[in-house]
Amino acid sequence: MPSPLEGIRILDFTRYQNGPHGTQLLADMGAEVIKVELPGDGDPGRAIMRQPDGFCAYFEALNRGKRSITLELRTAEGKEVIRKLVQTVDVVVENFRPGVMDNLGIGYDVLAELNPKLIYAVNSGFGPDGEWSSRGSFDHVAQGMSGALVAQGGGPGATPTSVAWGLADQVGGMTLAYGVMTALVSRERFGVGQKVDVSQLGAMISLQGFSLLGYLHTGTQERRNPGASRNAAFSWYQGSDGEWFTIAGLDPKFWPRICRVLDRDDLIDDPRSVDPFARFENGPWLIEEFRAVFAGKPCEEWLNALVAEEIPCGPVYDYAGVAAEPQHWQNGYLVELDHPTFPNHRTIGMSVQLSETPGGVRGPAPELGQHTEEVLLELGYDWPDIEQLHDKGVTAAR
Length: 398
Fold this sequence. Notes:
- By secondary structure, the chain is an alpha/beta fold.
- It has helices at residues 18-28, 57-63, 76-86, 100-104, 108-114, 139-145, 148-153, 167-190, 200-207, 209-218, 255-262, 266-269, 276-281, 283-294, 299-308, 319-324, 326-330, 372-378, 383-391; strands at 9-12, 32-37, 67-70, 91-94, 119-124, 194-199, 234-238, 244-248, 313-315, 334-336, 346-348.
- It has a six-stranded parallel beta sheet. Strands 7-8-9 form a three-stranded antiparallel beta sheet, covered by helices on one side.
- Strand 1, helix 1 and strand 2 (32-37) form a beta-alpha-beta unit.
């Protein structure tokens, strides 16, 4: 069976992280993603976290399975290539500072005239409206403006603390892929192309939904100790061997089972822990009680006991542990992938599995401009044309 997006072509102008992550998700589902990069250095993401051997995990993770074409978009010839390309694709995606594509003469209004069923997706920093709409953004700007930095730091008055991994970028990319998929379904049903607007800020607001909604309802944001839990049954503990594990008895039905595992039946009826409200109110005391008991046996013994009582739990891994865990490989969350430069290459797999039309990691990230001539030939350019574009600096740095 084909992959679900096989036959869908995407023209990808995105750079850095929040756009490329979204188009990478679509490429995994079978879409042909043609990444447009400037001649010379290409996407600035190619240089971020680049290692001495030339491997760039940042770029590789965000651009696997794509094709790369180099074009100088400020030239008439480069814009002409784009106008030809846009008539062959289903989706255009960009995350430039708002107005850049319009100023180049290849914005939504122009391209939609060339391809009325085109889906044109924008992943901006702050959304399409308001005084911030024309400003550029990067990850922690959106984390700060969405309230995430303060919330992660512990609440009002606390020192702001960022979340790692470019969280606003990653969530923004997921939201972008969701928006494009929704527009593709809409086009299939109603025959219309349209513009899709998503943003880092909007994605981060959505991510914090229930916490922010609590404030909107009460007008109060609770302060908390960052990285700590007040729920003893929903926390993490260290065994006698120094290894850590999690326990997630969020449902009250797990409370008696947890007490049995701890051999602390007295806690079941203790007024300080008899119900969820008491356990939350006396969280610090109860957590210390748990820590003292859990420190008495190795992590694996506790996990076996918790699993036997069907209490949600699991080991706490560093990245070495993640790479060694069979569960990740058996579900395709981590996969091996042939790479032309790096043998024995292991990479991130897919988090969505489809039974009848599965996607898959198509290949590594492309070299800069790797598919330029190939794409131009598909558009009808001949080799003399291609050589002329190269010599004029349209597809190669002067």
